[in-house]
Amino acid sequence: MPLLRIENLHTYYGHVHALKGIDLEVEEGEIVTLIGANGAGKSTTLRTISGLVRPREGRIEFNGHVLNHVPAHKIVQMGVCHVPEGRRIFTTLTVMENLMMGAYTLKDDRAIRENLQRVFDLFPRLAERKNQLGGTLSGGEQQMLTIGRALMSRPRLLLLDEPSLGLAPMLVKAIFETIREINARGTTILLVEQNARAALKIAHRAYVLETGRVVLSGPAQELMRDERVRKAYLGER
Amino acid sequence: MQQLLQQFINGITIGSFYALVALGYTMVYGVLKLINFAHGDLFMWGAYIGLTGLSALVALLAQGGPAIIAPVAVIVMVTIALFGVLIERVAYRPLRSAGRLAPVISALGAAFILESLARNIYGASWKTYPPGLVPAGKVALVGGVRISIMQVLVLVVSFLLMALLYLFVYRTRIGTAMRAVSLDHEVSRLMGIDVDGIIATVFLIGPGLGGLAGMIVALYYGSFDFTLGWVFGLKAFISAILGGIGNIPGAMLGGMILGIIETLGAGYVSPQWKDVIAYVILILILIFRPTGLLGERVAEKL
Fold first, then answer.
1. Mean per-residue pLDDT for B177-197?
2. Which end of chain A has fewer surrounding CB within 10 Å, N or C?
């Protein structure tokens, strides 16, 4: 049984039909990436999974539980954490307070300390800056903080929306390496990216979205060789 | 010098009323970006519930005294806190996604309803608290400055409550969640924070403090009517803006500053000119610091 199974998902923003019947599966341990142009429905797919928007039709199943009507804050408790686009850290909270908000659903102090240690192992820079206000961090550090904050709940499934957006090329590389590292340590990842080449490189499988529909899917290596993908998303002629 | 210190003590007494009420405005603004215009009238209701509670206890025990203040204060806080949660539930929550104007109108409506209810239930005449609840004596401080027992009570209670609130907001998990919600509802939900629950908590604490302030103000001045919420509410609202709306220490600071400026203006220039002096200074402060004294200290990086 896949960890996440989405069937015939339809989501609307007002009258805009944003998702027009998405089918998607993520197996435990995988990195799966959603690629596609702006407005294809990638972010909407993540937002529907995490409960920020409600699907009109279809079914989202995580670990055997149907998520369609579960409030967003309870979905986190079930083990899904969503890092939204745009480095939305709590700017006037310290780095430590930001991380503690990531662990909000945990009640056990020992588990929180262990998760904090893991996050600091992964991002030593955050440990150095733990008493600084979030808003004073650099762009790259803020992105580390959003990911570290999400890992504080020790999710089974991490939803990442455009983690490389707006970062300097060197940091982009580092972020993708970090994502691979997080996955190697046992977290399943559903990754949305504009940077299709980098995403396909680290992903096991991929789905290509166009105007709210899945138009192509398969192992990432195969999609990387697919002519349509190369033309439309990897910038080749 | 003696007069200055005396005025200063009177100023922080008035200022702590403003501060307690301003906290309610600023906390609600923080989590909802809404000016809760009903807050001043919740404060006024605190004075009336206090009146009912104190009168009933005085009649029941056939005597008045300082000892009956504390239980009535608790009843007032709980009742007004429940009023606050009810208003949020009925007047604000259904309009959460309706833009920013509709909830403001709803807040004004709630304010008018609360005010009319008070007038219709208690009558339009001035009300007086039972006499002799707080001993009338004064305590001499250094330099010939005298402080009344009433003022001591006001200052101790308000500073204690403000300190507790500060610790709650800046040192506890729920308090941190409150600050997180005031920065970003959506991300807070993604952290597993029950945003509706946090908002309800804010509507317990703010009106609870405001209601208690209403009772204390009525005790301090002795009498009041149903327009109490309008005058004090407006000044407390201004205090919250002065300190930086949404900022909790700012509301405390803003209230104190407004109280002190007003009292000094009344004492050194003339009582008729105190509002003119106070608001000229406020306008000047806002011209130079439009975000208020403590508002937006950290530049947001994107």
1. 97
2. C
